[in-house]
Amino acid sequence: xHVGGTxxxxxxxxxxxxxxxxxxxxxxxxxxxxxxxxxxxxxxxVIDLMQPSRDVLALMRAAATAKGEDLxxxxxVTAPLEAQERITACLKRxxxxxxxxxxxxxxxELVVRRLEHAVVRHNVVPSARKALDETQRxxxxxxxxxxxxxxxxxxxxxxxxxxxxxxxxLEKLDRKSFADVKLGDHVEHEMTVFFSDIRDFTHLSxxxxxxxxxxxxxxYLRNVTPIIRKNGGFVDKYLGDGVMALFAGAAIDAVRAxxxxxxxxxxxxxxxxxxxxxxxxxxxxxxxxxxxxGTIGAEDQMQTTVIADSVNVASRIEGMxxxxxxxxxxxxxxxxxxxxxxxxxxxxxxxxTAKGKSQSxxxxxxxxxxxxxxxxxxxxxxxxxxRGMEEFRKGQLLTAGRIFARIAEMEKHDSVAVYFRxxxxxxxxxxxxxxxxxxVEHLEVK
Length: 446
Description:
Blueprint: E1 2-3, H1 7-19, E2 24-25, E3 27-28, H2 30-38, E4 45-48, H3 53-67, E5 75-80, H4 84-92, E6 97-101, H5 108-123, H6 126-136, E7 149-150, H7 157-162, H8 167-172, E8 186-198, H9 201-206, H10 210-230, E9 233-239, E10 242-247, H11 251-274, E11 282-298, E12 301-307, H12 309-324, E13 328-331, H13 332-336, E14 346-353, E15 361-366, H14 372-380, H15 382-394, H16 397-410, H17 415-423, H18 426-432, E16 440-442
Parallel strand pairs: 1-3, 1-4, 4-5, 5-6, 11-13, 14-16
Antiparallel strand pairs: 2-7, 8-10, 8-11, 9-10, 11-12, 13-15, 14-15
């Protein structure tokens, strides 16, 4: 239930909540909302503070007086950041949390998760609420407006928490529940880090209004997340149109998940074509290494996170898919972890160094999801491509260029062969200068 607020803000917020799976969302005036609150026919109330403050405080005072000291349902207040005094006054009178307006349409999960936290904190027994308040608060950079909702039925408090804190994260920290997690908890593990990103999402999003953007991302991510989980991984972060996931098991789990995701994307794009929408393209990068899982922030403002150079490397590798024009790139640490006789089609692209990195990384293209004719071409020309890479790494760029040119001439859609052909051209060689050649391709990828 939301109380007050502009019509446009209400519509935007309702779209976010409905896309997140909340069953009932209603907008009421202050007078209409009091009976609903007292009867506890709603699970959460969001009150806009930019309506007359006496109405807001009177509503909260009437609700608290009728039911004792505490408000009968969790209350979140919303207002612009400059209205700090109003926000503080309501928090002192029993409001559970606040959201800053205007709504940030790029990050709906920041809204949804904070609302879920309020429901969980309010409904646990009083003796446990203080512990939850100290460990569960989520920082929100920019959020919305008035709301009040009924979460999907059948979920207990732990189920709510695990909607935004992966169970696997708690298991790695050796904690049974998030209430047991302390600031600064950390543990080191070796994992495969997965990054994915939708190509040209900025251009795509410009053709949609905010509600359509939320609907699209929700639909897309619902196709992605189950495949990651099925293959033994878990999503660490949703990064707008991107995903960061972790695989604690064998490297093959992450590769298998990536190949399945790209196959699922083909099915998803068929549906988009039928509906008259433009198909989307996705790039994915994998790297395996040691990383640190833990909690950072402050006692009253904490979040789980992963810190390691291997995370940065995986992100850079995903960015390289744009440079090479491919869907999936793996580092050598992932390939080295694959069992002998694995089923994946791989092609070595040599050593590369991304912008800001001093150490090079060996990368491999996985082309299992290419069109059949392109798979056949890459498989047939694998020996020639490998010889071209060998000449390239030795600095025999003229010879390497001829090899790559022949491969590219056979199939114009072999974007990697085209890339290395062009990198061996005289103009590019002159740009590199006459210094010693280290056999490493230096890319301007952040």
